[in-house]
Amino acid sequence: MRKHTLSSSAHGLRKVGRNSGQAAALVVVLASGCAGAALPAEVPAQHAPPSSAATTSPLGATRLARLVAGRNALAPMLAEWGLAESGSSCVLLFTDHEEWLVGCGRDVEGFVATGEEAQGEPVLHMGQSLAVSGQLLPFEQIKLAIVGTVGTWSRADGEPAPVLLLQDWDTLHSHHPGFTNSDVSEWLGVLVHEGFHAHQMWHPNVRRVFLELTEQQPTVVGPEDLANFYRANEEFRLALAREHTLLRSATETHHTQAEARQTLRAWLALYNARREHFRADLEGAVHSTRALDIDAFYTFVEGAARYVEARSLTTPPGALANDPAFAATRGRAISQLPGLGGIGPKYVYSIGMYLCLVLDDAAPGWQARVLANPGLLIGYINEVVGAGT
Ligand SMILES: [Zn+2]
User: How far is the centre of ligand 1, averaged over its atoms, from the C-alpha of 344 (Å)?
Assistant: First the structure.
């Protein structure tokens, strides 16, 4: 399991500001699971704004450089998918006692400009860590739960927009046992993965599918529900292990387009057999007749985000190609990156990532076509292998 997925302890967390005057109010709504959190939820009732700090402190050159490095790693990926115009690159970076906004506009209630700029956008500061419903949320309660995730906030014009919530690297490194022995590349991977969600989940076709899947359900079935079924069902685990082995081995050497398409054809046969065999049990376990559609949706959502994250780590773009932050991951096979390529309860991440990697050989330039396909990733794979959609 990746360490940056939001734990259920943060479910329903809200950071609330009051909409008044011309300033945008920060109204962040989170849900559990890194993908579910990217979607707009109802804007909560008005609350008192968080108290602003008496002093303003700068983000600082080091943090600024890290943030820009992460954004520079993400930008070519967004361009490749045609996602630059969907969603937002608004970031809220927090430590144990303060927070900054970058790319969220010039005037946000409670925040004060530091005078710094990141890629032409002003940096705003508030002298407290995350606040919820106008009250400070003790850092001790969230330091393990919120590494990076996407929430929703209400802009000055009232429109909901995504915001990437990211724990500062030094804070994370010194407070989170899962990151004690990590280097900054892992934090950059979190930024790229979650930053991708902040655009991907706001693409019109992706939002349409998500809303259609969730409109009849009070609670959203997500990767954690699928993970519980995986943990409880050995036969299901064996079926996924077969799919994982097939896809992973196909990515460890270069394949011709015909070979890659044959791999996808073979995977579809295994996948369709899995759907048929486990349909009733899975639907019962997650209490949804849409269980298989939800499995397919998150295979796309999380697989694509992990694919983007893994590629940015192994082939950092342009100006970052020689950055020491990527020394440990640059040039490595994606299947060998720790925590990214294995199979486990969060199988949708790795199965989806390998499907994307096989598509690199099977259908170059596939990304925008996946977003345009009504069935997204698996719909497009069906199209590529000529099996109909
Ligand atoms: Zn994710």
Answer: 15
